[in-house]
Every structure is written in C-alpha cells, then in structure tokens.
Write a structure and sequence with these properties.
By secondary structure, this protein is an alpha+beta fold. 49% of the residues lie in helices and 18% in strands. The protein is elongated, with a radius of gyration of 49 Å.
C-alpha cells in the first residue's frame, strides 16, 4: 500500500479527482446543449409566429382595401346614379363622382387612380389628382378615355364578382413619374361591381389601383419582439421579411430592391429547396440555407388564396444564424471563464503539491538534453525509491553504455574511412600506372630489338607518361581538397570577374562542342577564397559542357536578391543537356559518386564543402522552363556597400 501511494500516477489521479475538472466540463457541455435545444425551439416558434402575423397583416390590408372600394357600391348611391341610365346627357352625377374620387385619392394617399366604367365599358368618371395633391399628367388623363369592354377585370366584375389584379405595372398610368426611379411603379388592382339598389343588375364597375409601396412598407417593417436575450444587441436585429407571388418562386417585395421579380429557384438566388418547401405546405419552416455567404433560418406562411379573397402570396420571415448562436456563444464564454478560474486553482494546487514530485523529472530532462547535445558523460543523479528513481538509474547505466559504444564506433569509423580513402587513392593511381607500365615495356623492347620506330615510340611514350602524371597530380589535388588540406584565404572578391574568367577559359572547349554561351552578369562582391571559388566554377562549367555532347546553350547569370539573412548574390548556370534523374539528383553531392566513366566523383562533394565554408549554398535541379537541362545555383552573402551596376 505504501508503494502504491509513492507512485506518481496515483498522486496525479488523486489530484485530478480532487479538482473536479471533468465533472465541471461535463456540466458546462450539458448546459450548453440543453440551452441550445431550447433556444433554437424558441427561435423557430418566433419565426413561425412572425410569418403568421405578417400574413395576417397583409390579408387584413387587402381586405380593408377591398372594403374601401366596395363602399362605393354599398354606401354611396352616387356611384349607381352616375353609372345608371338616368338622362346621361345632362346628368350631373358623373362630375360629382369624379370630385369624390379626387378627394378620396388625395386624402387617402393609398390609391393612384379610381375610375368608374359603365356596363358597356365606357369611362364615366376618373380621378384626376395625385395622392397628397397635384394633378395627373394630361397624357395619363387622355389615355383613360378608351373602352374597357375587353379588360379581364372588367368582364369578371361585370359578372358580379369582386376581381383582384395581382402585382403588375398598369397601362392606365403609363408615363407617370415613379417615386423611386430605381423601381418601376407597381400596383394592385381592385374591381368592384356596382349594382342597382333595388335589384341585382350590374350597372358598372369601380376599378382602383393601389400603389404597391403600401405592401412593401408592411414587408420592410416586420414586427420584432424586444426580448433581452443578448447582452450586446437585439437578438432579432437581423430579422427581415419578404413576399413571393402565388407561384412560390417570384419575389414581389424584399428589402433588397435588386431582387424584385427574381426567380428564387434560379440564379442569382438559386435556392430551389425553399420553393419546394413553400409548395409542400401552407405554414412551416424552410430548411436552413445560405444566402450571400450568410447562414439563415426562416419560416413561411401562405396568405389567403384568390378563392378566399386574397392573392395567394407567400410571406417569409428570416434571420441570420450568427445572431441565433450569439446568445449561446455568450453563455459559453461565461462557462469558459468559470472553467478557466477553476483550472487555474487546480494548477496552483498542483504546482504546490507536485513541486517535489517533479524535481527528479526535471533532472532527467536536463540530463537528456545534455546527452542529445552530445555530452554522454551526463548523469541524472536521481536516486529516489520510486519509479523515477528506477528510471534515473536505468538512464545513467544506458548513457554509460552508449558512451563506451560511441568511442568504439568512432574508432571503427575512422579506421574504415582511412581504409576507404587508401583504397580509392590506390584505385585512382593504379589506373594511370597501367598504361605507363605497358608503354615503358614497349619502349624497352623497341630499344633492345633496335626497332627503327624507336624514336616515334619514345616520343609517344614520353607524351603518355607526362599526361598520366598530370592526371595523378589532379587526383592527388582532388583528394587533398576533399580532405581540406589547403588553408582557406578569404578576401573581397568580384564574382562577376572571376565568373567571366572561368567562362573565357572554357570558351574554346565550348566552341568545339558547339555550345553557345550566353552571359548576364552584374558586379557582385563577396568574401571568398578566389582559388576555391574558381575551382567550384570550373567544376560546374565543365560538367555543364559535358552534359551537352550534341551541343546546346549555356546561360550564365548573376543576380542580386534579398533573403531572410540579408542581401545575397545568386549565381546560376543553366544548360540544355541531358538533365538529371531522380536517383542521380539525390546522390550528386556524395563522395565518389559520378555519372561519368571518368573522374574521381569528388568534384561536387568538394564544391559543396567549399561553398558551405563561404556561408553559402549550392544546389542542382532540373530546369522548370524546359523539358530537359539542369540549373546549378550558388548563393553567397553580399559584402556591405556592394556596387550593383550591370
């Protein structure tokens, strides 16, 4: 039992259980889930209620406007007298009716036009004033003087039916200036039959054009309950309403005027799921959707149908989902702050209790870092009686064994490296010695036999020996350079001049190989050893020329740029040669690796070491602008106050 209590795992479990962090987090999650469910239910109820209320308001508006026009038949005998057949030539009633129409339009400011048409379709009286004052344009008044016998609303009303004409642009008011130039003047038409007081005979029709802006006003000002569910702003601040035609697909009214008469199911709106939902039932919720990149929730309600004395419109009320979730986010913020406070208290208690417990872990950590840095003499010094003590002793024993193994490995690696170096040197020197030996033997035999070709053989042998000796000198130089035998002598150096010198040195070879050399060099000063940089450039240029056995183009350039560590000189050499395979590219800078049948395979390895000693980088990669060729690129830091003229 005592050993169990000394366990670090036991201590941490007891601490976490005491802190009650998990139950607190679970409670916060449960509360948010419950509130989210109830909050969404409240929002859905609100949307459904608002849609119902908006539909009722529109139905009431239509019913009141129909009642206004019906009053000209039921409550005003002047209408019947004007439309009746009582001494038409001298009857004063049409003039009196027109006067009443004018006052009705001016004072009510709802209707733009009211006319009375007799049973034969002749105009007997028409309002000539604008809502709020002012006369109708003469061309509008003149246009009213026509026959209405063929108008659908007239024929239907003449049959004794109240006829409604849905949202339209009336030809009766063509040429009338719109109050909003961005939206054409639209109207609702109400046609009411006028009957004789003592019979059922229809003597004419009263037709009124109600301006659509009164419907639009209702839509633009939906009722928003002031429920303070949010601390920052009104929950329903983004609520807005719209109105669709009875086809459930055409927008008649909307806060955004550019959407008037647009089809919901087609671009730019393209929300066919809303159309399907509105067609499926009279009242309900739309599926959640996105409009202009904003997630939304909405409800709809159908207004009274045509058979019920309405237009069959569909009212929609929606709001942004981000407003709906804002309340939940505020609650979550409160819960999160409370959780943070509790966690801080737990952390404080943990720090006090675990201070002595974690001390061995810190010592082990420091020892591990020292070992990772290469110090295998590091020891943890942890000697406690718990699991950490066992771990510390195991760590110290392991480090000791690794230190001994590394010493043996380093010794073996050095021996292997020297053997490999000796093997490579012997192999490279043996190759030129073989032709030297054969040539000398041939020369000796020619002399002993007194051959008449002895002088020719002598000259050829001397030339071969000298050439092979130069080859052995180059091999020795490569191995010496790879081993870093020569001390570097860095100085202020103009790379463009050195680059041009190397290109000039290889110009004859390039011309013989049918390689066109193109230069784009700018002055760039760096700090480098001229001998070492010249060796690197010669290696890259010779590799590039050899990569184009059939000729090609060699592009040499120097540019200046800015890197994360300051200004840089970028030297590039682009060839149109055979290119590099993936295998060759991954091993280019390995010692003794070469894709040619001659050479030591040390050229690029030496080049990389020399460039890195100059604090630069070197890389070779396939050309991206062609389907073949290679780009060799060297980057070196510029000296301060470098002249950058081309």
């Amino acid at each position: 039992m005592r050993a169990l209590l000394r366990s670090i795992a036991t201590r941490w479990v007891l601490l976490v259980l005491a802190a009650v962090v998990v139950p607190l987090l679970g409670f916060a999650y449960f509360m948010r889930a419950q509130l989210a469910e109830r909050h969404w239910a409240s929002v859905e109820y609100y949307l459904l209620t608002m849609a119902q209320e908006m539909a009722d308001r529109l139905d009431t508006l239509v019913a009141e406007r129909v009642a206004d026009i019906q009053s000209w038949d039921s409550m005003n005998p002047l209408t019947e007298w004007a439309l009746g057949a009582w001494d038409e030539a001298e009857s004063p009633f049409p003039g009196q009716l027109q006067g009443q129409f004018d006052r009705f339009v001016e004072r009510g400011q709802v209707y733009d036009l009211v006319i009375a048409v007799d049973a034969n379709g002749r105009l007997l009286a028409a309002s000539s004033r604008r809502p709020g004052g002012g006369a109708l344009p003469p061309m509008v008044v003149e246009g009213l003087q026509r026959s209405y016998a063929n108008d659908a609303w007239f024929r239907n009303a003449l049959q004794g039916q109240v006829t409604l004409v849905d949202h339209h642009r009336s030809p009766l008011l063509e040429g009338m200036q719109a109050s909003d130039a961005s939206v054409p003047e639209m109207h609702l038409g109400i046609a009411v039959p006028v009957k004789r007081q003592l019979g059922a005979e229809v003597v004419g029709v009263v037709y009124a054009l109600m301006n659509w802006r009164h419907v639009q006003t209702v839509i633009l000002k939906p009722v928003k309950p002031r429920i303070p569910l949010r601390m920052g702003s009104d929950l329903y601040g983004s609520t807005y309403a719209w109105l669709w035609k009875s086809d459930c697909d055409t927008i008649l009214a909307h806060p955004s005027k550019e959407l008037y008469m647009q089809a919901v199911s087609r671009p730019p709106i393209e929300l066919p799921q809303l159309v399907e939902a509105a067609k499926s039932s009279e009242h309900g919720l739309y599926p959640m959707y996105e409009f202009r990149g904003v997630g939304k929730s909405a409800a709809y309600k159908h207004c009274r149908s045509v058979a019920e004395g309405g237009f069959g419109w569909v009212v929609g009320v929606g709001m942004d989902n981000q407003d709906i979730t804002a309340t939940l986010d505020e609650l979550q913020s409160v819960l999160l702050k409370a959780t943070i406070v509790v966690v801080l208290l737990v952390v404080l208690g943990t720090a006090i209790v675990a201070r002595r417990t974690t001390a061995p872990i810190l010592r082990l950590q420091q020892a591990t870092r020292r070992v990772a840095a290469g110090d295998l003499t590091a020891r943890s010094g942890v000697t406690s009686a718990d699991e950490l003590g066992d771990l510390g002793r195991a760590f110290d024993e392991m480090t000791k064994e690794i230190d001994e193994s590394r010493r043996q490995l380093v010794k073996a690696e050095k021996e292997r490296a020297w053997r490999e170096m000796a093997r490579q040197v012997a192999h490279e020197i043996k190759n030129p010695l073989t032709p030297i030996q054969l040539s000398v033997n041939l020369l000796k035999r020619a002399r002993d036999e007194g051959s008449p070709e002895y002088p020719v053989i002598f000259e050829r042998t001397v030339e071969l020996v000298l050439r092979q000796v130069d080859n052995m000198k180059r091999i020795a130089s490569d191995f010496a350079a790879f081993a870093g035998a020569r001390a570097s002598r860095p100085e202020r150096l103009d790379v463009s001049a050195l680059y041009a010198e190397v290109l000039d040195l290889n110009a004859a070879w390039a011309s013989e190989a049918k390689v066109e050399v193109r230069r784009a060099l700018c002055t760039a000063f760096v700090r480098a050893d001229a001998h070492e940089l010249r060796r690197v450039l010669i290696n890259l240029v010779s590799n590039a020329i050899e990569a184009m056995p059939q000729g090609g183009v060699l592009e040499a350039s120097i540019t200046l740029t800015t890197g994360k560590d300051g200004r840089l000189m970028v030297l590039e050499l682009r060839d149109t040669g055979v290119g590099l395979s993936e295998t060759a590219r991954s091993r280019l800078f390995e010692p003794y690796f070469t894709t040619r049948t001659h050479g030591t395979g040390l050229g690029l390895a030496i080049a990389r070491r020399l460039v890195e000693e100059m604090n630069g980088t070197i890389e070779l990669e396939p050309r991206k602008d062609l389907d073949r060729g290679t780009v060799a690129r060297i980057q070196l830091p510029l000296l301060p106050a470098t002249t950058e003229s081309a």
